[in-house]
Automatic annotation (TrEMBL):
Annotated protein name in UniProt: ADP-ribosylation factor-like protein 8B
Transmembrane segments: none
GO molecular function: GTP binding; GTPase activity; metal ion binding
Annotated PROSITE patterns: ARF (PS51417), RAB (PS51419)
Any GO BP annotation: cell division
Binding annotation for Mg(2+): T4
Coiled-coil region(s): none
Length: 176
């Protein structure tokens, strides 16, 4: 998986619902833009290189600075520590500790150790999406319920694509 430079945007429309997914680079020159792209979103997926221990502190500080912005209050966060296939990668417990995730009390937060390269632990990301974030796409209108489900399935498909995981690994979660 090649790190994002700048940003990529994907847009999915199903019925009267549109989802925009912003994939924003983590390089220092792009960090000042993070807040602008995160305003008004339904969820934040924050991916870090779990094998690059030298940058964990900076990553923690950036995440906490981002989440301290009043405009982003309450937005749920999914923290993904990529490269778990490498021997020096932090596991989930270490990520939670080093990223000081337990200090984040004003929102729902999930953390997983994954490997995009090896397609490892990606199912946990899907399960987290289903159990924690699917409500973001629910609707009170029964006529829109099917569309909402389709949109959520498309959302998961896009997340998998951003993680460079072909849908063939999770066909039950692909768009119908």
């Amino acid at each position: 998986m090649i790190p994002t430079v700048g940003f990529n945007m994907r847009k999915v429309t199903k019925g009267n619902v549109t989802i925009k997914i912003w994939d924003i680079g983590g390089q220092p020159r792009f960090r000042s833009m993070w807040e602008r792209y995160c305003r008004g979103v339904n969820a934040i997926v924050y991916m870090i290189d779990a094998a690059d221990r030298e940058k964990i502190e900076a990553s923690r500080n950036e995440l906490h600075n981002l989440l301290d912005k009043p405009q982003l209050q309450g937005i749920p966060v999914l923290v993904l520590g990529n490269k778990r296939d490498l021997p020096n990668a932090l596991d989930e417990k270490q990520l939670i500790e080093k990223m000081n995730l337990s200090a984040i009390q004003d929102r729902e937060i999930c953390c997983y150790s994954i490997s995009c390269k090896e397609k490892d632990n990606i199912a946990c990301v899907i399960d987290c999406g289903i159990s924690h974030f699917s409500g973001l796409f629910n609707t009170q209108n029964p006529e829109e319920a099917e569309t909402s489900s389709d949109v959520f399935q498309s959302f998961l498909a896009i997340i998998l694509e951003l993680l460079s995981v072909p849908l063939k690994y999770f066909p039950e979660h692909g768009p119908s």
